[in-house]
Amino acid sequence: MPALLRLEGVTAFYGAIQALKGVDLEVNQGEIVTLIGANGAGKSTLMMTICGTPRARHGSIRYDGQDITQLATHEIMRRGLAQSPEGRRIFPRMTVHENLLMGARGHKPAEAEAAMAEVFALFPRLKERLAQRGGTLSGGEQQMLAIGRALMSRPRLLLLDEPSLGLAPLVVRQIFGAIRELNRATGLTVLLVEQNAFQALRLAHRGYVLVNGAITMAGTGADLLARPEIRAAYLEGGH
């Protein structure tokens, strides 16, 4: 199975603070791969570094066989990546319809219409809320909208940053169920950053553990779920 995304020895800094310390990670075509770790471990920084902000200082990031390490963010995203960022970051004053169309910029109207139909099949609630302003949606609906907006570009690789953050358990199960169905039905490749280690590892084909900016463990989702140190740190009230 070919690697769609490969990071080798990636370091990144915020000012003088080193946030990523030689990260090696790969995501194969058609996989769901999750990155778990405590708050402040560098998970969101890794996602942003893949997208070019901050820029990787050392190491390489390759997507679909091409080196994208030094590309501008807009050039990276044009290659078939889409991100649903932490905190959702929808446009609160825009309607659901307008938010979704923002994700389809650059696509022909017929393509945008087809992509929107696929989003509605995944998240029927969005179709019911089409004319409603994004800021008036519930937290779960806003998360559906953020993921739906990312899917409007019809990406090959979807980057999901903390999709369960602040959501009720029932809504979390709905979101994760939609991600699983999307991967199963379309083969969409997903890189998932998540603090909810139990849900993430159950969903993922493979996982990585990030501690203080460095990968400390890797394996299948099932293998990591079964490891006592993972259970102690992330599944039994640990941080």
Provide a descriptive summary of the structure in words.
- The protein has 239 residues and is an alpha/beta fold.
- Helices cover 38% and strands 27% of the residues.
- The chain folds into two domains: 1-80 and 156-239, 3-Layer(aba) Sandwich (Rossmann fold); 89-154, no CATH class.
- The protein has ten helices and ten strands.
- The strands form two sheets. A six-stranded mixed sheet has the order 6-7-8-3-9-10, with helices on both faces.
- Helix 7 links the parallel strand 7 (157-161) and strand 8.
- Helix 3 (96-103) packs parallel to helix 6 (139-151).
- The model has no long low-confidence stretch (mean pLDDT 92).
Task: Summarize the topology.
Layout (H helix, E strand, L loop, with lengths): L2 E12 L2 E12 L3 E5 L6 H8 L7 E6 L2 E2 L5 H5 L3 E4 L11 H8 L5 H14 L1 H5 L10 H13 L5 E5 L7 H18 L2 E6 L2 H7 L2 E6 L2 E7 H6 L1 H8 L4
Parallel strand pairs: 3-8, 3-9, 6-7, 7-8
Antiparallel strand pairs: 1-2, 1-4, 4-5, 9-10
Mean pLDDT: 92
Structural class: alpha/beta
What's the β-strand tally? 10
Q: How far is it from the N-terminal to the C-terminal residue, by CA? A: 33 Å
Strand content: 25-35%
Query: Which oligomeric state applies?
Result: single chain
Taking the sheet with the most strands, its summary is:
6 strands, mixed
User: Which second-level CATH architecture of the largest domain applies?
Assistant: 3-Layer(aba) Sandwich
Unreliable spans are none
CATH superfamily of the largest domain: P-loop containing nucleotide triphosphate hydrolases
Number of domains as seen in the coordinates: 2
Measured on Cα atoms, how large is the radius of gyration? 17 Å
Shape type? globular
Helix content: 25-40%
Count of alpha/pi helices: 10
Could you say what the CATH topology of the largest domain is called? Rossmann fold
